UniProtKB/TrEMBL annotation:
Gene3D superfamilies: Chorismate lyase-like, Winged helix-like DNA-binding domain superfamily/Winged helix DNA-binding domain. Keywords: DNA-binding, Transcription, Transcription regulation. Residues 12-81 form the HTH gntR-type domain. This is GntR family transcriptional regulator. Residues 98-120 are annotated as: Disordered.
Length: 257
């Protein structure tokens, strides 16, 4: 962390001292990845400064990429994003467990409706076909990180609709029912949080989210799901391995963790 007072003979501004101390503590792992910093009042009392000075320190830490703000909560430490590789086909649950996190899931809504043109194209459905749309909040060790918006053909959606709302892994539940996911096509880009995203993830409407759109198929090549997953950007990273010897990435199912 740089200090603009270096070489001037003047003591650093108090907000810089607060930021430097907290930055060092973050680097030492005192708060952990995703942990919350002390409240503004506690820090103001510790350093004998105003809350305004503490807020300046927090602004500096945000600028340096060390913390993020969540609406209604204290500042949260940003850890290194956990890479999720497309070189192997892992569900969110299995990927989370492979990183030492405890995955969670809560179904927000389940509804049936006619598929729109994009959904019909992705799921290879005829005009007028019904789909199940399922929205879920996904968590890592209790922290909201992602919203799933998934549509299923009716034969698969009927199975999903019967699951308890707190089912952690829909993928495992489908496997138990004989529905296997063998291949997936991914598209990664950015989108803006809408009102529902903001309410469930604790961000602000319009904040950038990392979006993964994915069409998954079974071993016969029949589409099983068309999903749009929206992640808080500091919670995940994606890695891709490419090779001149292959024109496409190999996908394979992974054993349950």
């Amino acid at each position: 962390m740089t200090d603009g007072s270096a070489g001037t003979g003047k003591p650093p501004a108090m907000y810089r001292k607060v930021a430097a101390d907290l930055g060092r503590e973050i680097g030492e792992g005192r708060y952990g990845s995703g942990g919350r910093l002390p409240a503004e009042g506690e820090l103001a009392e510790r350093y004998g400064v105003s809350r305004g000075t503490v807020r300046q320190a927090m602004a500096l830490l945000r600028t340096e990429g060390l913390i993020a703000s969540r609406r209604g909560t204290r500042r949260v430490v940003i850890g290194s994003p956990r890479p999720q590789s497309f070189g192997e086909l892992l569900s969110f649950t299995r990927w989370a467990r492979s990183t030492g996190e405890e995955p969670g899931g809560r179904t927000v809504t389940v509804e049936t409706r006619p598929a729109d043109p994009t959904e019909r194209d992705q799921l290879h459905l005829p005009a007028g076909a019904e789909i199940y749309e399922v929205r879920r909040l996904r968590t890592l060790s209790g922290r909201p990180v992602m919203i799933e918006r998934t549509v299923y053909p009716s034969t698969v959606g009927e199975l999903i609709a019967e699951l308890p709302p707190d089912t952690v892994s829909h993928t495992v539940a489908l496997e138990d029912a004989g529905v296997l996911i063998a291949d997936a096509q991914h598209t990664i880009d950015l989108c803006r949080a809408d009102e529902e995203d903001a309410r469930l993830l604790g961000c602000r409407p319009g904040d950038p989210l990392l979006r993964e759109r994915r069409c998954s198929t079974d071993p016969a090549g029949t589409p099983v799901e068309w999903s749009e997953d929206r992640y808080l950007p500091e919670t995940v990273a994606f890695t891709v391995h490419s090779s001149a010897a292959s024109g496409s990435l190999a996908r394979r199912p992974a054993d349950d963790a």
